């Protein structure tokens, strides 16, 4: 199992079981459950057979720690996985490998801003035409487009789109469909099973989930995964063994972490919709969410991220200062609850828009803390006025 990068051998089991066992080597007396990171740049070569003599020759090309994690994520995504040093390394690798000068790329207008920034700079310079469409649609006719990159739920607005429907449209148009699965994680949805050609994602967020590792990956059929692995070798976008091992170690609790985050997000979304100063509460599990129906159909669980809007930037500052539990931080999906005012990073959103990432703290503590912090932020507004 260790040498497989997308075995599907655990597909009959539930999420918790799959997370615990994904990518582990067969049990061997005297060996650990998950072997530690292998710190090696070169490996011993057979003096006569040279590179043909063993799987491992040089760490950038391949190594046993990488194979373990790739087996695990490939198992969960249902495809062959290639791990990268960050989500952006995976996304840029996919775009640069699969697109050629003259191609058209369709991106979400409301998705992760660095993907758009990369495409509108580097890809446009290489002669790729970049178009955008809102995640919730409408989408332009796809004939003539070489690749569609979806993000569902989109970061930070959490709009969703029907991946299976767009996969059908892409196939008819001869376009490749890639899905950024960062927010959902492979336990939330499996884009490859919904018809996508390729998954790209940041593992930095909920997948690894401890706010201590930068990581990315792509997952696809071998025709797409193999060129990406060659690309990674030639560009050097390979994560170090310690990061890879930390990520693999963290995967065994993914099911538990996501379950608690979803539970907390549900409670907090319920709290937020009742606050008159809070507008635009977005969570795909909320009955009033515009993508509720599509999300209910295509997602197996809802993310721990809730987006909402406070009256202005100063209101957000007062809220963050008053909270004892919510860390002010970007990123999301970690075990600690955190909040990020997205306009401060240049996202085209209202000044008071907050992306709240629910951690795994006790729900009652979080609800009490948020209620208190929102009340305090309101009082501040009254005394300012
Ligand atoms: C964070 C993020 C990325 C980039 O991932 P890094 O690991 O930070 O490079 C890509 N897509 C989405 C949706 C993200 O949230």
Topology readout:
Elements: H1 15-21, H2 64-77, E1 80-84, H3 87-98, E2 104-108, H4 113-125, E3 129-133, E4 147-151, H5 163-173, E5 176-180, H6 185-188, E6 198-202, E7 216-220, H7 222-235, H8 241-251, H9 254-272, E8 279-282, H10 292-298, E9 305-309, H11 313-322, E10 327-328, E11 338-341, E12 353-357, H12 363-384
Parallel strand pairs: 2-3, 2-4, 4-5, 5-6, 10-11
Antiparallel strand pairs: 1-7, 6-7, 8-9, 9-12, 11-12
Q: What does it look like?
A:
- The structure is a single chain.
- The protein has 385 residues and is an alpha/beta fold.
- It folds into two domains: 15-251, Aspartate Aminotransferase, domain 2; 254-384, Aspartate Aminotransferase, domain 1 (Alpha-Beta Complex).
- 37% of the residues lie in helices and 14% in strands.
- It has twelve helices and twelve strands.
- It has helices at residues 15-21, 64-77, 87-98, 113-125, 163-173, 185-188, 222-235, 241-251, 254-272, 292-298, 313-322, 363-384; strands spanning 80-84, 104-108, 129-133, 147-151, 176-180, 198-202, 216-220, 279-282, 305-309, 327-328, 338-341, 353-357.
- It has a seven-stranded mixed β-sheet with strand order 1-7-6-5-4-2-3, with helices on both faces. The chain has a five-stranded mixed β-sheet with strand order 8-9-12-11-10, with helices on one face.
- Helix 6 (185-188) links the parallel strand 5 (176-180) and strand 6 (198-202).
- Helix 9 runs parallel beside helix 12.
- The radius of gyration is 21 Å and the shape is globular.
- The protein binds pyridoxal-5'-phosphate.
- The site of pyridoxal-5'-phosphate (PLP) has 15 residues, from helix 3.
